[in-house]
């Protein structure tokens, strides 16, 4: 039908179409000019987005050969949008998300999340404003689904009742089995859904879901997407979701196609398919990938081509987007090049005309300040302590190990270490009594060899007297007829020492004692016991040596006594009186006991803590908890509190076993002994934190723990006195955590010293300093050791 202009002239359909096309061209030109005109971005504009990433650079590996993951990437996620983050496996999606949630740092560039910097005040990130579902399941296998929800619910400040109500809804939505079932007994897909439920639980403002639909059937996948669409409708919730099923992101408002560390496109899925005349998003991705590859070769010409062909979508309300001059320098879009369109200017399906919320509190907000210096939150501690307690006490095997090991070690130590070796084989060749049969060397035991008639002594078979006393100390005396045979047997390892008595031993000894000034060399030589020792084992050699000398002393004392002489008359003129401290009979168990007790408690705490922390970290639970707003300090202290209970139990058992059942010497204050043992365990616990922060795997943690255990055993004065070491090693030793405490404990136990003695309190001071050092190091490592 013809149309008419106001002068009555006829206008053809072609004319109208030409006019419309001209108008569209004009509009396009205007918009393109506006879009490509340099525009300025303000911090305020970035703060208004749910997430805004600018010029993000992230690389792994060494400086000379870096693996560049993010290469100047820009990303804009408006509030209330579902943002599908797509890209090939290994392109850096998880890395980008962990930077957004504040678990990794960019090498350069900036990130704004919910109006603040991740980790900075005002952002609420990490914290309950964010819901994070990491790629790994990141749940406690020992917990039921309900308990898992209670843990995450409590962290985000929900009450148990609120959690219970939400659990029912989520079980229904995600088609989960009975919420009382333990997570470890669920299938892989069910576990992922529980993980998703944990992220959805507290209805956060920003949901970050790393592949939530893996292992989920298409029907359920659709209902998850429907739920995401539902919760974002009001504009209060924003979702960033990564997935390998590209086509499921059709329901997203925007998708970011990531490749080569940048976005190939950041656009609504429909718009992308329309623009690139593709039937599926996969085709779009393919086309853009090809174009990106070409662009690397001849970037400028392709860009010109693209800019010409690309239709610039409408902007609902440019003023609301806060686009200002200069923004062009940080736009996201095709090829990540700075001359393409700003995502802010695109037709994003999310309702960008929603009223702009008030900006979050600034960095110098006094409330934020108080929050920052407040080290621990009550509901966080409640959740963590509850979680740690149940993780430990649910695991029966682990519990038996941590209680059984110190106990069995103590029993084994008391039974096996430090006791005097008796029954060592000692070869005897007694030329004084050549034909000893069955080890019987008869002599007049209680008759003094004094002869009244001559007023002289007639000492005979004193060797038998001596061997009698020696056999009370070492019962395994083996008699040989000749020295040659005895030595040959000793060389074959049949005896630890060989004692040879000359033929006229007693007589020569008598002459030597009677008139030493006129004793001939022959007399002196034949009055001596010839001793040949196997010195391989110094402890054995030292003890046999002692027995040989003490037996002689006892035999001479006996002789003097039966002859009515002063007891000490015939022995060497050195008397060892009752020891000032310790026992008369040396007891290595008492010497080594303090070091062994402290080592058991210390290293068990190291193993337990580092094991628990590493398991938590490697399963992703630690990261998830940190993203939920839990701080490193809270995690450490919650572990300290729960493990302290275990340690009190362990310490009591070890001390009772050692001092009550095995009668180790304890002369000092029991209370301080217990306190020192406990703080030593605490020290081990904090060292365990450091180990778990430094090491990435259980294997390296084991190496580090073992690598520190062995030197400590050597250098802390546990098996050998520190004074016997090289001067440099003595200094090293004093700087180790177990040296001073071992000395302190030993002094309390055996010397009975009180806390006021410097040797004793220096053990407490040294251990406390180490606790402080380790704790500070772990808090700093947790805070700053990010990717
Ligand atoms: N801690 C790390 N140290 C060194 N390289 C890392 C580290 N974490 C990730 N990478 C590397 O960075 C690249 C990107 O990894 P990322 O996990 O971010 O990829 P992705 O896109 O999430 O992969 P997928 O889709 O398979 O989960 C990979 O090549 C990976 O090997």
Automatic annotation (TrEMBL):
Residues 51-285 form the ABC transporter domain. CDD domains: ABC_DR_subfamily_A (cd03230). GO terms for cellular component: membrane. Keywords: ATP-binding, Membrane, Nucleotide-binding, Transmembrane, Transmembrane helix. SUPFAM superfamilies: P-loop containing nucleoside triphosphate hydrolases (SSF52540). The keyword Acyltransferase does not apply. The chain crosses the membrane at residues 591-615, 636-664, 670-691, 703-722, 760-782. Residues 557-785 form the ABC transmembrane type-2 domain. GO terms for molecular function: ABC-type transporter activity; ATP binding; ATP hydrolysis activity. InterPro entries: AAA+_ATPase, ABC2_TM, ABC2_TM_bact-type, ABC_transporter-like_ATP-bd, ABC_transporter-like_CS, P-loop_NTPase. Its main location: membrane. It is a multi-pass membrane protein. The keyword Cell membrane does not apply. It is found in: Membrane. PANTHER family: ATP-BINDING CASSETTE, SUB-FAMILY H, MEMBER 1, RE14039P. This is Uncharacterized protein. It comes from Leptidea sinapis.
């Amino acid at each position: 039908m013809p149309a008419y202009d106001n002068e009555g002239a006829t206008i053809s359909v072609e004319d109208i179409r030409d006019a419309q096309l001209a108008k569209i061209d004009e509009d396009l030109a205007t918009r393109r000019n506006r879009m490509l005109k340099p525009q300025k971005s303000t911090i305020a504009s970035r703060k208004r987005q749910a997430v805004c990433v600018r010029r993000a650079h992230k690389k792994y590996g060494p400086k000379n050969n870096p693996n560049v993951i993010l290469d100047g990437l820009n990303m804009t996620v408006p509030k209330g949008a579902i943002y599908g983050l797509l890209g090939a496996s290994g392109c850096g999606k998880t890395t980008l998300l962990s930077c957004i949630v504040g678990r990794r740092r960019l090498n350069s560039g900036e990130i704004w999340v919910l109006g603040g910097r991740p980790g900075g005040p005002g952002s609420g990130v990490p914290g309950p404003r964010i819901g994070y579902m990491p790629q790994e399941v990141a749940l406690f296998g020992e917990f039921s689904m309900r308990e898992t929800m209670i843990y995450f619910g409590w962290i985000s400040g929900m009450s148990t009742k609120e959690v219970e109500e939400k659990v029912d809804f989520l079980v229904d939505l995600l088609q989960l089995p009975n919420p009382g079932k333990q997570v470890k007994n669920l299938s892989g897909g069910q576990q992922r859904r529980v993980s998703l439920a944990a992220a959805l639980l507290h209805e956060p403002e920003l949901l970050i879901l790393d592949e939530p639909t893996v292992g989920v059937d298409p029907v359920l996948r659709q209902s998850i997407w429907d739920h995401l669409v539902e919760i974002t409708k009001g504009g209060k919730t924003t979702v960033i979701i990564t997935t390998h099923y590209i086509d499921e992101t059709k329901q997203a408002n925007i998708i970011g196609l990531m490749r080569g560390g940048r976005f190939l496109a950041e656009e609504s899925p429909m718009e992308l398919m329309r623009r690139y005349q593709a039937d599926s998003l996969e085709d779009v991705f393919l086309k853009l990938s090809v174009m990106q590859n070409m662009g690397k070769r001849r970037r400028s010409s392709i860009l010109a081509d693209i800019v010409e062909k690309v239709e610039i979508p409408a902007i609902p309300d440019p003023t609301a987007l806060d686009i200002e001059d200069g923004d062009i320098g940080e736009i996201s879009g095709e090829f990540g090049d700075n001359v393409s369109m700003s995502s802010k200017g695109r037709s994003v399906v999310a309702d960008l005309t929603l009223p702009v919320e008030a900006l979050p509190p600034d960095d110098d907000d006094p409330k934020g300040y108080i929050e920052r210096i407040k080290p621990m939150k009550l509901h966080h501690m409640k959740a963590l302590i509850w979680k740690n307690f149940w993780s430990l006490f649910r695991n029966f095997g682990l519990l038996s190990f941590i209680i059984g090991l110190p106990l069995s070690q103590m029993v084994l130590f008391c039974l096996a270490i430090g006791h005097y070796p008796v029954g060592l084989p000692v070869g005897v060749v007694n030329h004084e009594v050549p034909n000893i049969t069955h080890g019987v060397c008869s002599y007049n035991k209680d008759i003094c060899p004094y002869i009244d008639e001559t007023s002289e002594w007639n000492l005979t078979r004193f060797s038998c007297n001596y061997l009698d006393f020696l056999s009370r100390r070492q019962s395994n005396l083996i008699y040989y007829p000749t020295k040659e045979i005895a030595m040959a047997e000793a060389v074959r390892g049949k005896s630890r020492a060989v004692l040879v008595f000359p033929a006229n031993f007693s007589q020569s000894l008598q002459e030597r004692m009677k008139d030493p000034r006129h004793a001939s060399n022959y007399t002196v030589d034949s009055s001596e016991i010839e001793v040949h020792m196997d010195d391989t084992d110094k402890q054995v050699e030292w003890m046999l040596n002692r027995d040989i000398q003490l037996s002689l002393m006892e035999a001479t004392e006996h002789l003097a006594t039966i002859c009515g002489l002063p007891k000490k008359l015939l022995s060497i003129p050195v008397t060892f009186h009752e020891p000032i401290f310790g026992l008369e009979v040396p007891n290595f168990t008492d010497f080594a006991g303090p070091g062994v007790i402290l080592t058991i408690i210390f290293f068990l705490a190291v193993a337990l803590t580092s094991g628990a922390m590493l398991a938590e970290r490697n399963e992703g639970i630690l990261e998830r908890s940190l993203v939920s707003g839990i701080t490193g300090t809270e995690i450490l202290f919650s572990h300290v509190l729960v493990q302290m209970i275990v340690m009190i139990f362990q310490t009591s058992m070890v001390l009772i076993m050692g001092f009550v059942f095995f009668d180790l010497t304890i002369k000092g204050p029991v209370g301080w002994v217990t306190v020192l043992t406990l703080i030593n365990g605490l020290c081990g616990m904090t060292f365990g934190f450091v180990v778990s922060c430094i090491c990435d795997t259980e294997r390296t943690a084991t190496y580090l723990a073992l690598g520190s255990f062995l030197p400590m055993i050597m250098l802390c004065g546990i098996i050998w006195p520190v004074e016997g070491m090289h001067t440099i090693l003595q200094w090293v030793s004093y700087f180790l955590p177990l040296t001073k405490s071992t000395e302190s404990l030993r002094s309390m136990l055996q010397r009975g010293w009180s806390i006021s003695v410097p040797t004793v309190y220096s053990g407490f001071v040294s251990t406390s300093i180490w606790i402080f050092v380790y704790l500070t190091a772990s808090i700093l490592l947790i805070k700053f050791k990010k990717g």
